[in-house]
C-alpha cells in the first residue's frame, strides 16, 4: 500500500499518526469504561439488576420484612432494619429513594435507633451484637458484643452518651458508644419468650422495660430497679415515655392501652381499641398531645387527656404478612407518622387526615400474577389486594388499571388471544372479565365452590377454562359467561389448566398427582399422565409437547399424543414457560435463578440470577424478553432481556459459517445457543448459507399408500405380518409419526392401538437433526424478509415431512409476529 507523505501547516502526518491513533484508542476505552459504569435504571432512576431492562413498580421504601424504623433527629432521613436481608437502609422521606445501605450483621436486624445528636446509628441483631454505623458513609464504626443470644432492642440515652440493649439472655446492657465497651448489665426476669422492650426517660435518669407480666423502671446511675407496674393484662412490646417524662404508655394483650404515672407507678387511665388485638406498637407525638397505637392492621390516634380515639385507619389486611404493623415512628415535627410491617414496605401517613402520603407508584401489595398482551406492548399484573394494573412494557410506566376485586386476592390472570379481554380469578369461587381499554368489568361469573386457581383461554378467544380447588375444570362462553360443561375427573383440587394452541386439548393438573388431557368439545378425558406435585403447565407452540413444573424440583415434558414422559430437567421446577418459537424453556433453576433450557436436549443454555424463588415466568410474544414473579412478597416485577445483551451485527466469512454450522448441531446446548445467536447477528450471510444447507423435503408419492398399508397390517390376523409392519414403521420414524397419531383417533383393535402407542413411545426417532432444527430457529429469530422467503420455500415441501411441518410452524409464528409488531 502506498504511504502518504505530505504535511499540513508544517506537521508531518506520518509522524503524528501513531499519536492520534493512541489518543483515539484511549478516548474509546474511556467512553467504554464510562458506559460500563453506568448501570441500567428504572423509570424512577433506581438501578436495575444486571440483565434486567424494565421494572414494573418501584423499590422505593421497599425492604424485606421491615422490622423497625427511626427518623433522624432533623427529619431528613428515615432508617429501617431488615429481618430477612440483614441490613439497615437509609431513605429520603421526601422521595422514598434509598440513600445508603449498612451491611455487616450475620442475621436479621431487630432494631435501629439514631443517636439524639444525629451522628451515629445503632442497630440490634439476632446475631447477638449491637453495632454502630456512620450514617453518612454506611460504614460500621464498631461492634458491641456481650449478649449470649439474640438482641431484641436498642435505645440511646437522650444525651447520646449511653446505649442500652435487651436480649434473649434476659439482660439489659449499657454500652459506651465511644468505645463499644459494656458499662453495666442487669438481669430481668420474664415469664414468656416475648421481647423485652426499653425506653429512656427524657431526663436520662431512668430506663423503662416492658415484658410479659410487668413494666419495670431502673435507675441508670445505680442499676437498681426503682419500681414496677404489675398488671392483670398481658404486656407486650409497646412502651413509650411522654415527651415531658411524667407518663408512661403501654400496650396490652386484649387491645388495651394503659397510662401510668411515672413517679408513683399508679394507673391514671386505660382505654381499648375497637378490635381485640394486641397493641404491639405505641408512640407519642412530639408535642405530647396525641398517642398513636398499632393493633393488627389498624392504626389509631388517641387523645391521652381523655382516652378518646380521634382517628383510625387500616391497611388492607391482604397486603400484610400475618396482618400486623410492626412499628410506628413520628417525624420530629409531628407532621408525618411512619409505619412498617409485614408487607415489606414503609408507609407514610398524614395524621391530620389518616391518608397515606403516596410516594410509591405501582403495586400496593404483593404481585400474584402477570401476563403479556398478545402484541407484547402491555403487561397486566394482579395483586393479593385484588387490584389489576396495566403497564407499558417498554418503559415500565403504569398506563391504566381495572377495578379488580378489592379485599379479595387475585390468583390468576389471562389475556384473551385477540387482546380484547382480561380474565381474572381468585378467592370465593368467582372469575371476572374486564375491558382493558376502559378498565371496567364486562361481567362476573360464579359456580366454583372454592377458589379459582388458574384460567386459560381457547385460541379463538370464545371460551374460558377455569380450574378450582373444588376439583373441577369448567368451560364457559366468554361472551355470555354461561357454563358450557364441567370437566370433573380430578379427585382433589385443580391448580393449573392450559388450553393447547391448536384448541384440541385442555390439560389440567390436580392434587391427585395426575395430569389429565380432555377433549373440550365433549368434556371426555382423552388420556392421563401420572405426575406428582404439579403446580404449572405450559404447551409447546405446536401443541405436541406439554411441559409441567412441580414442587418435586423437576420440569417434565410429555408427549400429548401418548401421554408419555419424553424428558425431565432438574431444577426447582415451580414455574415453566415456552418461548414463542418452542426452542427454549424457562423454568425455575437452582439457587434462586431463572434457568433457560434447550427444549431439544434439556440442557441449560444460561441462567438469570434473581433474589428468591421463582413463582411465575412468562415470555413476551417476541421471545426476546421474559418477566417473572421472583418471591412470595414480590411488589416489583422485572423484565429480562433474552439474550441479556443486545446483539451487534457482524460479518461472517465462509470458515465462520462452517464452524458455526457445526456448533449448531452440538449436544452442548450453551455452545449451540451461542452459535445460533451469532448466526442471527450475521444474518446477512447466514440466511443465504442456511438456504443452501436445507432444501425443501421432496414429496414421496408412494409414502402415503405405504403408510396406510402398514398401519392396516398392524391389525392383520398373522403375527408375522403385524411384526413386520411394526418394524417397517419404526424404520420410517418421524415420516410415519403423523399417520400413526392420526390413526389413534380412529376405531382400532386393542392389538393395533397397543402397537401404535409402542411405536410412538420411542424416544429416538430418526428425523430432523438438531442442526437443522436450530437452523430454523435462526431464520425465525432473524425475522427479516430474506429469512421469511427461505422459511416459505422449506415449508412448501412434503407435507408429511417433519421438516416441512416445523418450517411451516415457524413461518406462521413469524408472520403473526411481524403483523403485530408496531410500525
Structure description:
- The protein is an alpha+beta fold.
- Helix content is 18%, strand content 38%.
- A 4-stranded antiparallel β-sheet has the order 3-58-57-56, with no helix packed on it. A 4-stranded antiparallel β-sheet has the order 4-5-6-7, with no helix packed on it.
- The longest helix has 25 residues, at 13-37.
Question: Concise description?
Answer:
This protein has about 800 residues and is α+β, with helices and mostly antiparallel strands.
Features:
four-stranded antiparallel beta sheet; 823 residues; alpha+beta
Q: Specify the number of helices.
A: 11
Assembly type of the shown chains? single chain
Q: Into which percent range does the helicity of residues fall?
A: 10-25%
Q: What is the rounded Rg? A: 33 Å
Strand order of the largest sheet: 3-58-57-56
Low-confidence stretches: 1-13, 19-23
Structural class: alpha+beta
Overall 3D form = elongated
Number of strand segments:
58
Whole-number average pLDDT?
84
The main β sheet shows up as: 4 strands, antiparallel
Percent in strands = 35-45%
Give the terminus-to-terminus CA distance.
47 Å
Give the helix/strand layout.
Elements: E1 7-8, E2 11-12, H1 13-37, E3 52-56, E4 66-71, E5 78-82, E6 87-91, E7 98-103, E8 109-114, E9 121-125, E10 129-133, E11 140-145, E12 151-156, E13 163-167, E14 171-175, E15 182-187, E16 197-200, E17 206-210, E18 214-219, E19 225-230, E20 235-241, E21 247-252, E22 256-261, E23 267-272, E24 279-284, E25 291-295, E26 298-303, E27 308-314, E28 325-330, E29 337-341, E30 346-350, E31 355-356, E32 367-372, E33 378-383, E34 388-392, E35 398-402, E36 410-415, E37 422-426, E38 431-435, E39 440-445, E40 452-457, E41 463-468, E42 473-477, E43 483-487, E44 494-499, E45 506-510, E46 514-518, E47 525-530, E48 534-539, E49 545-550, E50 554-559, E51 565-570, E52 576-578, E53 584-589, E54 593-598, E55 604-609, E56 616-619, E57 625-629, E58 637-641, H2 654-664, H3 669-681, H4 683-693, H5 701-713, H6 719-732, H7 737-744, H8 750-760, H9 770-782, H10 785-795, H11 802-820
Antiparallel strand pairs: 1-2, 3-58, 4-5, 5-6, 6-7, 8-9, 9-10, 10-11, 12-13, 13-14, 14-15, 16-17, 17-18, 18-19, 20-21, 21-22, 22-23, 24-25, 25-26, 26-27, 28-29, 29-30, 30-31, 32-33, 33-34, 34-35, 36-37, 37-38, 38-39, 40-41, 41-42, 42-43, 44-45, 45-46, 46-47, 48-49, 49-50, 50-51, 52-53, 53-54, ...
Amino acid at each position: 500500500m502506498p504511504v502518504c507523505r505530505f504535511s499540513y501547516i508544517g506537521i508531518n502526518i506520518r509522524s503524528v499518526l501513531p499519536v492520534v491513533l493512541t489518543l483515539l484508542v484511549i478516548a474509546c476505552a474511556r467512553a467504554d469504561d464510562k458506559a460500563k459504569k453506568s448501570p441500567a435504571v428504572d423509570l424512577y432512576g433506581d438501578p436495575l439488576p444486571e440483565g434486567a431492562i424494565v421494572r414494573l413498580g418501584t423499590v422505593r421504601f421497599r425492604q424485606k420484612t421491615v422490622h423497625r424504623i427511626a427518623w433522624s433527629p432533623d427529619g431528613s432521613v428515615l432508617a429501617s432494619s431488615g429481618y430477612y436481608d440483614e441490613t439497615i437502609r437509609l431513605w429520603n422521606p421526601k422521595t422514598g429513594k434509598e440513600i445508603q445501605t449498612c451491611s455487616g450483621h450475620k442475621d436479621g436486624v431487630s432494631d435501629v435507633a439514631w443517636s439524639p445528636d444525629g451522628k451515629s446509628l445503632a442497630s440490634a441483631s439476632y446475631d447477638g451484637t449491637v453495632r454502630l454505623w456512620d450514617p453518612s458513609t454506611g460504614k460500621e464504626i464498631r461492634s458491641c458484643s456481650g449478649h449470649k443470644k439474640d438482641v431484641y432492642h436498642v435505645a440511646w440515652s437522650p444525651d447520646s452518651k449511653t446505649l442500652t440493649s435487651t436480649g434473649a439472655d434476659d439482660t439489659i446492657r449499657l454500652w459506651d458508644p465511644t468505645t463499644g465497651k459494656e458499662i453495666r448489665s442487669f438481669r430481668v426476669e420474664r415469664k414468656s419468650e416475648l421481647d423485652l422492650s426499653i425506653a429512656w426517660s427524657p431526663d436520662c435518669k431512668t430506663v423503662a422495660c416492658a415484658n410479659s407480666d410487668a413494666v419495670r423502671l431502673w435507675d441508670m446511675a445505680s442499676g437498681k430497679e426503682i419500681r414496677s407496674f404489675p398488671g392483670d393484662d398481658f404486656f407486650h412490646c409497646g412502651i413509650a415515655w411522654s415527651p415531658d417524662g411524667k407518663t408512661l404508655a403501654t400496650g396490652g394483650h386484649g387491645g388495651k392501652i394503659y397510662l401510668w404515672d411515672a413517679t408513683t407507678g399508679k394507673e391514671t387511665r386505660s382505654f381499648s381499641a375497637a378490635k381485640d388485638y394486641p397493641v404491639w406498637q405505641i408512640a407519642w407525638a412530639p408535642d405530647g398531645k396525641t398517642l398513636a397505637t398499632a393493633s393488627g392492621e389498624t392504626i389509631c390516634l388517641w387523645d391521652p387527656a381523655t382516652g378518646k380515639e380521634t382517628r383510625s385507619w387500616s391497611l388492607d389486611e391482604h397486603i400484610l404478612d400475618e396482618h400486623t404493623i410492626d412499628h410506628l415512628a413520628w417525624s420530629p415535627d409531628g407532621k408525618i407518622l411512619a409505619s412498617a410491617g409485614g408487607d415489606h414496605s414503609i408507609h407514610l401517613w398524614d395524621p391530620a387526615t389518616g391518608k397515606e402520603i403516596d410516594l410509591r407508584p405501582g403495586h400496593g401489595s404483593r404481585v400474584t400474577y402477570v401476563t403479556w398482551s398478545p402484541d407484547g406492548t402491555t403487561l397486566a399484573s394482579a395483586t393479593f389486594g385484588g387490584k389489576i394494573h396495566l403497564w407499558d412494557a417498554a418503559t415500565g410506566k403504569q398506563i391504566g388499571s381495572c377495578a379488580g376485586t378489592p379485599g379479595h386476592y387475585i390468583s390468576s390472570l389471562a389475556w384473551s388471544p385477540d387482546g380484547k379481554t382480561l380474565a381474572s380469578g381468585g378467592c370465593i369461587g368467582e372469575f371476572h372479565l374486564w375491558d382493558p381499554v376502559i378498565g371496567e368489568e364486562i361481567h362476573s361469573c360464579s359456580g366454583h365452590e372454592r377458589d379459582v386457581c388458574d384460567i386459560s383461554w381457547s385460541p379463538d378467544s370464545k371460551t374460558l377454562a377455569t380450574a378450582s380447588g373444588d376439583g373441577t375444570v369448567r368451560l364457559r362462553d366468554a361472551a355470555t359467561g354461561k357454563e358450557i360443561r364441567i370437566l370433573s375427573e380430578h379427585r382433589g383440587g385443580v391448580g393449573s389448566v392450559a388450553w393447547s394452541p391448536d384448541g384440541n386439548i385442555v390439560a389440567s393438573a390436580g392434587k391427585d398427582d395426575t395430569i389429565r388431557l380432555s377433549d373440550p368439545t365433549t368434556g371426555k378425558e382423552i388420556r392421563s399422565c401420572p405426575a406428582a406435585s404439579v403446580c404449572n403447565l405450559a404447551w409447546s407452540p405446536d401443541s405436541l409437547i406439554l411441559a409441567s413444573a412441580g414442587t418435586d424440583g423437576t420440569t417434565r415434558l410429555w408427549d400429548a399424543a401418548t401421554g408419555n414422559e419424553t424428558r425431565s430437567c432438574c431444577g426447582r421446577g415451580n414455574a415453566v414457560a415456552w418461548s414463542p418459537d418452542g426452542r427454549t424453556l424457562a423454568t425455575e433453576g437452582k439457587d434462586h435463578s431463572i434457568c433457560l433450557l434447550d427444549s431439544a436436549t434439556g440442557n441449560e443454555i444460561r441462567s438469570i440470577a434473581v433474589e428468591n424463588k421463582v413463582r411465575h415466568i412468562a415470555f413476551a410474544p417476541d421471545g426476546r424478553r421474559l418477566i417473572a414473579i421472583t418471591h412470595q412478597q414480590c411488589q416489583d416485577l422485572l423484565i429480562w432481556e433474552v439474550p441479556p445483551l443486545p446483539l451487534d451485527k457482524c460479518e461472517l466469512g465462509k470458515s465462520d459459517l462452517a464452524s458455526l454450522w457445526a456448533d449448531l448441531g452440538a449436544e452442548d446446548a450453551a455452545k449451540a445457543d451461542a452459535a445460533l445467536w451469532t448466526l442471527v447477528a450475521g444474518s446477512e450471510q447466514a440466511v443465504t448459507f442456511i438456504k443452501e444447507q436445507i432444501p425443501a423435503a421432496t414429496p414421496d408419492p408412494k409414502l402415503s399408500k405405504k403408510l396406510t398399508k402398514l398401519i392396516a397390517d398392524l391389525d392383520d390376523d398373522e403375527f408375522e405380518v403385524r411384526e413386520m409392519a411394526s418394524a417397517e414403521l419404526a424404520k420410517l420414524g418421524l415420516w410415519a409419526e403423523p399417520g400413526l397419531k392420526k390413526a389413534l383417533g380412529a376405531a382400532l383393535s386393542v392389538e393395533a392401538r397397543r402397537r401404535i402407542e409402542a411405536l410412538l413411545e420411542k424416544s429416538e426417532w430418526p428425523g430432523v437433526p438438531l442442526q437443522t432444527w436450530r437452523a430454523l430457529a435462526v431464520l425465525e429469530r432473524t425475522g427479516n424478509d430474506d429469512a421469511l422467503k427461505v422459511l416459505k420455500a422449506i415449508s412448501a415441501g412434503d407435507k408429511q415431512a417433519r421438516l416441512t411441518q416445523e418450517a411451516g410452524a415457524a413461518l406462521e409464528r413469524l408472520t403473526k409476529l411481524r403483523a403485530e409488531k408496531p410500525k
